[in-house]
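Entry type: protein chain
Record version: 2
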Amino acid sequence: MASESSACETSAHSAIECVKDNESSSPDVDVLRANITDERHACSWVEDYGLKTNTSWVVDFVKPTAKCERMVFHKVWRCKEAKREKSCGEAAAHCPAKIDLKIKKVNRNTKRNDAFLRGEKPLPAVIKLFHHKNHSHSTAAADALSRLTPTMQTGETFLAYFDSGMSPAEATRLHESKLLVQEDGYALVANSAVNPLPPAIYYWHRLCREKNFGKDVDPLLKIADMPLYAKHGNLRVWTIFCKITLQTAFSTT
């Protein structure tokens, strides 16, 4: 009824146990059961799975479960390439791969017809992997790796760099140096999930600046406030503020 599956080895969280449901699986769909009990761990599992399989998954469907008697969570992810339109006359990927993950409630009614809920350690998560071995595109080519979405852990790492006072360029150099000393370092550097592209890095840097210093102010717009400051005798205050704003603006360009 159940067996180990390579897809079950994706999680970095040792507390997550996962087995393959052979009876429910088919040639196109692998069905896994896991002891995932909430949305946070479900999303973390999907991200870990994507990192191992060089695939980015985007949410395609969320089913409300507040009034559901048998489920506490149900969400569907599709391969990021499912709807990506290619340019230069190339056909869109239209990848059929998707993940359907639901978490069942564990009670007397649900245990009745589900052997995976009756064990010493219930496995309430039902993970269906559709066409996960048959993507309509390469998942190993350099171009495919460069389109992967950065993981949450990658974002947190860069925010920590910026909190320590690093610039985007300094953070990028440090991060790449850490990746290069790891096994398959050059492959990691080419993978945007763990080594993000500049747009993502500068976006995180802006978030960090806004958190610590507030949103950027266009210094040229402050010129319109000059008459108001002069009227109230605060022209010197206005001049100092504009000077600081200009210095801040040029330091980030």
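Comment: The two ends are 60 Å apart (CA to CA).
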